[in-house]
Design goal:
This protein has helices at about 20-25, 30-40, 45-50, 65-75, 85-110, 145-155, 180-190, 225-235, 265-275, 285-295, 310, and strands at about 15-20, 55-60, 115-120, 125, 140, 160, 165-170, 180, 195, 205, 215, 240-245, 250, 260, 260-265, 300-305, 320. It has one domain: Acetylglutamate kinase-like (Carbamate kinase, 3-Layer(aba) Sandwich). A hairpin with a 6-residue loop joins strand 10 (about 205) and strand 11 (about 215). Helix 4 crosses helix 5 (about 85-110). It contains eleven helices and 17 strands. The longest helix has 26 residues, at about 85-110. By secondary structure, it is α/β, with parallel strands linked by helices.
């Protein structure tokens, strides 16, 4: 049985962040059939959370997928007007949400669990003055070979290495401030529905001073940071970040590499200050965990996609608590 905080999971709210690389690994052929297969394989943890009585919201990444969408737009530019990056984030939130919604509904039905699953395309507020908008650091798309890398750089596109040292296209990634539709997510979750929200970090928007209305901006928000904000907004006790690495490591890639099983919030803050976790990999996840705990969350867990249940029991992954 999965042990939730306080009451064994019953009526507790958890936000589960699923990595875009976990649903579509950046080093494999990105066919829709393979993405559906990976999505179906990723639902076991969600099914068990529902069985144990957790109220669940799911946030998914879109790094590989939104990069592919951007490439499709560029390939078709001679015939069709391209869509801006913010709109492509909304697009991927829709069709990845559809994959999760269908896969999870089938898995719940098979398990005999009567739960509805809904997907919301939500907007994430950012500051138009965020310095990160002029410093692309978020890996998107799939792994690049040397020819693809040279071609993108020749067009002035920023390319860099991701957390595993692979060449990837980079996008601007501002810090999320709030989720415009968090009240709707809260209402649906409290009704017992499993909600897929903030897909790909949510299309970023800012409040335009001249009109007082919301406007989109071309960027990709880190889904873990957005999941952290959503978890606070909907009163979640736990943030579970599932990715393609089995936790936070000391000396990642070095001779002293080892996974950290437990961290206090203070220790996690020290890791961020030391620069011990890389920007393109674990840093946003640890920062997301710290932000959630600072705002009153009980615990945050970072674990590999297939280990969600074991991580909740403290058997694997990295668990971060306030003290």
């Amino acid at each position: 049985m999965v042990e939730g905080p306080g009451s064994g999971g019953l009526n507790e709210t958890i936000v589960v962040a699923l990595g875009g690389n976990a649903l579509a690994p950046s080093d494999v052929t990105p066919t829709i059939e393979l993405q559906f297969a990976h999505t179906r394989e990723s639902m076991a943890t969600i099914v068990e959370l529902a069985r144990e009585g957790w109220k669940v919201a799911i946030v998914h990444g879109n790094g590989p997928q939104v990069g592919d969408e951007l490439s499709r737009n560029e390939i078709a530019i001679a015939k069709l007007a391209p869509l801006p990056l913010g709109v492509l984030v909304a697009s991927t939130a829709g069709w990845i949400g559809y994959m999760i919604q269908q896969s999870l509904r089938n898995a719940l039905d098979k398990a005999g669990i009567d739960k509805h699953v809904v997907t919301l395309v939500t907007q994430t507020e950012v500051s138009k003055d965020d310095s990160r908008l002029s410093n692309p650091t978020k890996p998107i798309g799939h792994t690049l070979d040397e020819e693809e890398k040279a071609s993108l750089e020749g067009r002035g596109v920023t390319v860099g290495r991701d957390g595993k040292g692979r060449w990837r296209r980079m996008a601007a990634s501002p810090t999320p401030v709030s989720i415009l539709e968090s009240d709707s997510v809260t209402q649906l979750v409290n009704e017992g529905k499993i909600v897929v929200a903030c897909g790909g970090g949510g299309p970023p928007v800012f409040c335009a001073e001249e009109t007082g209305g919301w406007e989109g901006i071309d960027a990709v928000i880190d889904k873990d940071l957005t999941a952290s904000v959503l978890a606070t907004d909907i009163g979640a006790s736990t943030l579970l970040i599932l990715t393609d690495v089995d936790g936070v490591y000391h000396d990642w890639g070095g001779p002293e590499q080892h996974r950290i099983d437990k961290l206090t919030m203070a220790e996690a803050i020290d890791l961020l200050k030391e620069g011990s976790v890389s920007e393109g990999s674990m840093r946003p996840k640890v920062a997301a965990a710290v932000g959630f705990l600072k705002r009153g969350g009980e615990k945050a867990i970072i674990a590999e996609l297939g280990d969600g249940l074991a991580a909740l029991k403290g058997e694997t992954g990295t668990t971060i608590r306030r003290q």
